[in-house]
Amino acid sequence: MKGQRMAFLGIMAAVLMLCCREENAIPATATAEITETKYVALTFDDGPRASTTGRLLDGLRERGASATFFMIGQQIAGNEDLVRRMRDEGHQVGNHTWDHVKLQGLPEAAVSEEICKTDDAIWDILGDGTYWVRPPYGLLNQNQREWFSTPLVHWSVDPEDWKLLNTQKVVSAVLKKVQPGDIILLHDFYPTSVDAALQIVDKLEAQGYEFVTVEELMALYGVTPQPGEFYTSARKAAE
Length: 239
Prior knowledge:
By secondary structure, the protein is α/β, with parallel strands linked by helices. The protein has a single domain (about 40-239), classed as TIM Barrel (Alpha-Beta Barrel). The strands form 2 sheets. Strands 1, 2, 3, 5 and 6 form a 5-stranded parallel β-sheet that branches. The protein has a two-stranded parallel ribbon with strand order 4-7. Helix 2 links the parallel strand 1 and strand 2. The protein has helices at about 1-25, 50-65, 80-90, 110-125, 160-165, 165-175, 190-205, 215-220, 235-239; strands spanning about 40-45, 70, 90-95, 150-155, 185, 210, 230. It has 9 helices and 7 strands; from the N terminus they run αβαβαβαβααβαβαβα.
């Protein structure tokens, strides 16, 4: 009896050891470590705004993410420190006209005034430079593009954050559509958009994405942007 009992205990110990090994083993279906970096550009229109842009810059700095800010000229006065922070913290600064007027159909003199006034406001803070343009609503006539000496930036992912004004809906809309090489459109004018942007960064960084400026994104895809040309994504531009 004693011998049988010892044999039984030996069998049970072997079974338990096998179960423990299986329990602690790495499943064959476990997610592989992310090795490929996927690049994307996060862009913000209509700022700067002290109450929201500052918090956004704080969050981007904490996450090591870069972005591109297309600023309205008349929003710059009083927010000069935010503009300096954008440059100093590695972000790209762009021109979104003086007062967000739709440029499509306007005469060249009116378009030039909208762009030049904003450039002057930026130059007064950051010095001379090439500040890429995003026309309001992304609209220009074909012939108007010839008037620009910088690349024109459109977008490939637009969650319409200005309409939703709902953080989780904006996050979901972006995550559902985003692909490497995309340019994401958001607005740093709304608290819900700032919250959404930081959540988007967290979730996409966990998937192996890196956030870079539009200019950096184009360079990473081997694209040399041309003046007066619209760019919706680096992936499409590289095709």
